[in-house]
């Protein structure tokens, strides 16, 4: 889920900074870079590139190089480091130190998302659903909330396309 947010943050950043057409060209360039990565055994290969929804590890740094600020790339790297470390089944004291270091670095670098406005997707996808949850096994509740919001947005788009959400009830009465 957090990796999906990372992809969304990059898209939000590119759309804020560039026109929609240029942002799409940049995403196409990133997809092209994904497509040309040489296949390695035991690693997933994406020969078509397009539609890629998650970036992982050091590859994300190379894919985004030149397209986003260095602090944003560092924030991605430290968040991914943190995620991989905390997913270990057994942690040593040294691991805990590394986890804390990664978290501290992420908090330092994540300011770039606030200053560019790209963090708004995180608030919508993570923070608001978290607040709506009971906080007990919240992830499944958050995912369900996001799924419902996506369906409502799709329904609104369909209704607008059919002319069903133009104006308000009051405007029709006047």
**Total E-strand runs:** 0
Indicate the overall shape. Answer: globular
Indicate the structural class: mainly alpha
User: Main beta sheet: strand number and arrangement?
Assistant: none
Distance between the termini: 46 Å
Outline the low-pLDDT stretches.
none
Give me the strand/helix succession.
Answer: HHHHHHHHH
Work out the strand percent.
under 5%
Please, what is the average pLDDT? 75
Q: Using the CA coordinates, give the radius of gyration.
A: 20 Å
Number of helices: 9
Helix content: over 70%
What do these coordinates show?
Helix content is 70%, strand content 0%. Helix 7 (120-132) packs across helix 8. The radius of gyration is 20 Å and the shape is globular. The protein has 174 residues and is an all-alpha fold.
In short:
With 174 residues, the chain is mostly helical.
Please render the helix and strand layout as text:
Blueprint: H1 2-17, H2 20-35, H3 57-64, H4 70-86, H5 93-109, H6 111-116, H7 120-132, H8 138-161, H9 169-173
What characteristics describe this protein?
9 helices; mainly alpha
């Amino acid at each position: 889920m957090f990796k999906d947010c990372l992809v969304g943050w990059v898209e939000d950043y590119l759309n804020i900074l560039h026109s929609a057409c240029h942002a799409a060209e940049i995403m196409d360039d990133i997809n092209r870079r994904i497509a040309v990565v040489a296949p390695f055994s035991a690693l997933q290969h994406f020969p078509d590139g397009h539609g890629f929804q998650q970036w992982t590890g050091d590859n994300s740094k190379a894919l985004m190089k030149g397209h986003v600020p260095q602090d944003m790339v560092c924030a991605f790297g430290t968040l991914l480091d943190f995620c991989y470390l905390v997913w270990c089944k057994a942690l040593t004291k040294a691991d805990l130190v590394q986890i804390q270091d990664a978290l501290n670095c992420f908090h330092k670098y994540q300011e770039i998302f606030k200053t560019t406005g790209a963090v708004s997707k995180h608030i919508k996808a993570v923070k608001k659903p978290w607040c709506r949850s009971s906080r007990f096994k919240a992830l499944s509740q958050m995912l369900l909330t996001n799924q419902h919001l996506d369906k409502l947005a799709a329904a609104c788009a369909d209704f607008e396309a059919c002319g069903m959400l133009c104006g308000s009830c009051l405007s029709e009465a006047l």
